[in-house]
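FIELD: query
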Amino acid sequence: MKRLKEGTIRKYRQLPTVAIYSAAWLALMTLLSACTSHLHQAYSPSLTAHTEYASYDSGHYEYAAPVPQPEFYPMPFQQIQGYRLEGLRFPSSEDNGQPGNLVDARYFRSLKQGKKPLLIVLPIWATHTFPATVVSNGFALHSKGDANVLWMQGDGALYDWFELADVDNETEFFATVDQSSARFRAVAIDTRRLIDWAQTRPEIDTRRIGIIGFSMSALVSANVAGNDPRIHTAVYVLGGAQPWNMMAECNLVVEYARKQVSERLGWSQEEYRAFFRQQMRYGDPALWRGRYRPENTLIIESDKDDCIPPASRAALFEATGQPERILYPYNHWQPFLSMTPVGRNVLSRDIFEFLDRKLLTPAGDPPAATPHRTAHSPGTTR
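FIELD: result
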């Protein structure tokens, strides 16, 4: 082994310096290509067949909580030119799984005179803060005070994969998943209550409220947009519909939890999928098909996504009315590299360009509430 290692080192020492530099340059160019290569498909109204409102139950995301009266707290070392940045928090009306059961957000309030649109940025709960940080700070700087930004924090997990992986029996697993699904519902309602609060603010143009989510929060934001007509503009990054397919096919830590649970409970992959199809049926954005605004929606996805399967991506695209779409040819995490200088900030610039066109453009009257049948789902009456 030692002789082999020494021989390998000697071999690489004999490589010409120019060859080493060439290999390094090729690797860098490959990385840059992976970060920036993508297909941008425009929205075409002629392709959209969904023109009537769906009649699915919507009681799952109804609530009777009052308009929040948040507590504000200073953030003196994180200020951005043209804004007053403050933290705000208030008690959740549900069990949202966050520290102190609070709704915690960072509010970038524009110092410019007059009403400005609001962009709500959702987190990837208990995972990566990078995408939400880039969009929140980046769009505030980019818009130069022409938009307010509200960045919801997400330190607590909605689905704690390690907790799920440690369950010993079906009863414990059912209870843990029930609690997780309740948290998913809770953060959607928290988001709607943030909109309630936004409607009381004189600096916010409530005809122009946008929302953006990433991965799990793309799923949450799509459910919010499908149930709240106050959402004017929406961006879903690496999300999908049919969440049971994600649970059954996603890799990484989701796969780890799935394998541990399936082994302990003796479930097949299809049994696991069927269980989550029942548990997460009201978390499916496809339920709200026909109640989105496709002309103001952007989907960003990866066609080799190893967490969001093709059926889920296609279902979201169809349910939201075949909107504008940006397609990366890589996996679930690689597109985030294009939000960095290494990836020339391509993804960030595409998001900001879309928001410039849709959210920063003066809007007419807010849409009327969608007429639909209301029936509370079991156990969710509020």
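FIELD: remark
Residues 1-34, 50-57, 366-382 have pLDDT under 50 and may be disordered.
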